[in-house]
Amino acid sequence: MKRYLIIMTCIVFAIAAVVFAYDQAYFPKRRATRVTFPFHVENTAIIEEKTNEPFLVKGVDVDSFVPGYYDTDHAVSKQKYMEWFEQIADMNANTVRAVRIYDPDFYNAFYEFNTQQIGKKESPLYLIQVVGVTDYAQNNARDAWSDEFYGSLVRNAKRCVDVVHGRQFLPYARTSGYGLYTRDISPWLLAYEIGSRWEADTIAYTDHKDDRTGAYEGEYIEVDGNATSFERLLGQVMDTLCQYETDKYAQQHLIAGTTQLNTDPFDFEPLYDQQIGKSASIDFSRFKAGPRLVSGLIIAYSYHDYGHDFSKDLTPDEQERLKGVLDQDNAGTGADPYLRLFEHYSTHPVILVNGGYSSSRGQTGLDGPYTEQEQGEALVRLYRKALASGLDGMVLTGWQDNWSRSDWNTSPYVEEGQQPFWHDLQSEGQGFGLLEFKPLGINGAIEIDGETQEWTKKEQILSCPVGKLSVQFDAEGVYMKIDWAKDVQFPVVIPIDVTPNSGAHQIEGEPYTFDRDADFVLVLDSKKEAILRVQTYYESVRAAWNAQIRGSDAYSIQVPEPHEARFVPVESVAEGAIVDTAGHLMDFLPTVASGVLRCGKGADLYSMADVTELRLPWGLLNFSAPNQAAVHDDYYLHYGIESLPVENMYVGLGNAADPDIVMEKAKLPRWVRDFEYEERLKDSYAIVQDAWKEGR
């Protein structure tokens, strides 16, 4: 037994030694005769070494999400990544961006794809590897010099270097990929990006609390004497990464600093600082290459479309400081005034990242929602503005839709932990991709196109003088097909009951009566016009946001009755400018009419001859977890939003000529992780592909 333990101990130590030698140990290569670098900076341009020509970034974020899994589950297979890289290259892109360390399948696929591309004498894809920290590290009570932030950032920087060079073993991790990384993809690395987005409050707290300000003179990165504490921290992290890669691998790559509007180097009027949440700045003009950096520094500007030219809102002192930059004539260039200002001010090449528009129904601001066509057109406009503003390219957000995301204005409505199992079309953040995952119904994909091949007689639940109504479900919503009777009179109403706790048998001032309480009424004014209304007691926007939109508590003042016959349009809360046209702060959040169905092929409503197809997203009908057939429970019993499992929903059909409406049962589905879906490139893909076909 003793001999056995000794042998096993030796084996464990031997394995540990191999792992250490493979993963951690290295011999410095300071005496290497040559440090290689695939890209370098020349003036304010990115230069590709093998061609000695300027490199224009045409990129897209690639996430690790597929339906049924969180993106941090890293459930995407190597083969799937290979397929996506092929489609991305066919879109005329030249770069992909990884927002954290992914699992080895991503890097193995990237290596194999580029090896094949070179074998076919075609252009490879390049990679921007983001080095970041967790959300917790950015939002805890400590400043950025704490080990949770600074220490973690340095460790992640070294891990990213080793992952890129195929010399890393990572044990289990909750927020990044893990496993054995053996593929050297460094020939195709464009840049390391330090941070995908910094929280302004973290920067402000660090700058206020810590006195480690002033110059930092690294061998690879230098920061001048005006540097703030956070800027000095970034300089040290960048310098450490460059030194680590140079010493260990005799290679260097571009190093990118990250900033955005609310951390840019400009001073705005106080009201606009409040609007964008600006409490700190990062000024990369204080950064420069040290004596041993041969690749170069670039800036990754994280874009958000506020629909406002903030270059006009600088303080008088800032306008005076920037007078020489602001006086440059940009008329007729097609430039974005703010991006042009940022580029002119910057001393390093600038690429735009996180540039995206969503094709979801939902919206967080007053602009949108966008169709797929409009999404593509908006992306191309932004790309052309970026180039006209002097930027060195753009990275779109993102490649695929991500169901695991939720927005600030939809997160109160959904059951936490269930998001990846269904597509919430009301969450703007889930629709930024150029590739969608289309769930399948019982007869395949259900399309809103007026065609009926995905419908059979089995889905018909009722027939009345108005017509025949059929119902289907998938992971996006409730679908209805109406076969109209001849010469049907409008308006037509479709009452819908989802919860036993509330609802009404009638609509105030209308002739209709229902044989059970309805929570919603879909009103079709014609075959091309429809709006969803909700019974006031079941109005989710009131339950979650009444204080923010009306200034009164939802649970103490004028509480609706559970069965009052009043139905109001379904609305969503949005975020508008907090400063009105007169320069005053606005008190309340605006709302948008989310219950209006969009008409058109692939939209919410489409009619062809005597058939109408329509889709009601689960989120519009107050489902918190449709995969579990769970809806919102009684708001006023729970003083908030809780989930209630139900078995069925009930639907009717009628009009003024047939006002006594019988509501029939439709059994709700339930599904688990491995439900069926298919991938589909959106219309926006072809629009971007066409815009990027020149000069790949």
Plain-language structure description:
The chain is an alpha+beta fold and 696 residues long. The protein contains 15 helices and 38 strands. Strands 4-5-6-9-12-14-15-16 form an 8-stranded parallel β-barrel. Strands 21, 24, 25, 26, 34, 35 and 37 form a 7-stranded antiparallel beta sheet that branches. β19 (467-473) and β20 form a beta hairpin. α2 crosses α3 and α5 (147-164) runs parallel beside α7 (229-249). The radius of gyration is 28 Å and the shape is globular. The model is unreliable at 12-24 (pLDDT under 50).
Summarize, please:
The protein is α+β, with helices and mostly antiparallel strands and 696 residues long. The protein contains 15 helices and 38 strands. The strands form ten sheets. Strands 4-5-6-9-12-14-15-16 form an eight-stranded parallel β-barrel.
